[in-house]
Amino acid sequence: MVDEMDLMRDLKDVEPVRPRAFEEARAALRTAMAVDEAPEAKPAPRRRARWSGRRTVGAGAAALVAAAAAGVLVATSASSPGKAPVKAAPPAAAANPILAELAADITPLQAKVTGDATLEIRNQSPTSSKLRFNGIGLYTDDGTYYWGNDKSSLRRAVMKSAGDETFKRGVTVALYAAKGDITTARARMENANLAPGANPDQGERAKTEKLKAVAKARGEKYVPPKPPTPERQKEIADNHIWMNSIGALLASPENPQVRAGVLRILATMPKVRVTKTTTAGQPTLTLVDSWSDGRETLIIKAGTGQPVALLSEAQGTKPSMTYYHNSRVRIADVKAGKF
Questions:
Q1: Which sequence ranges are marked TM in the entry (predicted)?
Q2: Which of 94, 253, 276, 291 is the most buried (most CB within 10 A)?
Q3: Would residue 262 count as lying in a domain?
Q4: For 200-259, how does the pLDDT look when each residue is reduced to its tens digit (9 = 90+)?
Q5: 305: domain range?
Q6: Can you tell me whether residue 255 is helix, strand or coil?
């Protein structure tokens, strides 16, 4: 039998890898979730990841443990010491009280008027905003994303209007979710990564054709995975909702309405656990969502919901906490090189 996970790795090998691997790996996770549906699928062999900043998930918690041991992340109970973290109730029935309360507190707030874009520097330091190998990104207020290895390349990308609009749909859904029907918001967020009018089945067919091509190139017969069970389908849907919600939060961290909408959605996620923590001496909330394939950890500011750090744990890779250092800028200043 063809190992579907091996096929996906071969598929990535034959496709060009653009610099923004951190974001592209989110799509790879969705593919991995869909491909690895057969219960009897063989485990994938460990190998070094080609993408240093990839956001796939898997087993292992070394980076989180190391951060806690170093005093960067100090966890306490969501309610009181010694008790388990709060677990969200099923969608539309009840909400995680911590996230729901924070969303309610944020909703009346207005977005900052200074600037018209958010400059994002990602690195492995909770306190320093020094530019490192993750490069530098820029999100306009509508969610359009620009990236560069350094300030000069970012400026060129903005000048050429070479932006990525993938996150715009998630931002739009989050804005709706701030006050709209939460069940509708969840359904929209699940497919927020798809282009308007796109049929999810078309993506599945395209993926199947690529897998068939890889199997043929290897001289093997393509054996499709078994259809996912209802439980697996729900897990995949929840994974998509989480991934797209986090994408919207990272794309518009300074807009309180986006943060409120994302928090309202995450409050309905059945497996999301919320814990009160301290990061670099500041009160934070740590959210952990898990799937059979692994988990992700998101740290946000306790009072505002703004993203602080993200940890993706993937099999075969060394996970590391990525910290976000955001600042407001004007697009005109970026074009002029004044940032």
A1: 56-75
A2: 253
A3: yes
A4: 666 677 778 888 888 889 999 998 878 889 999 999 999 999 999 999 999 999 999 999
A5: 47-193+242-335
A6: coil
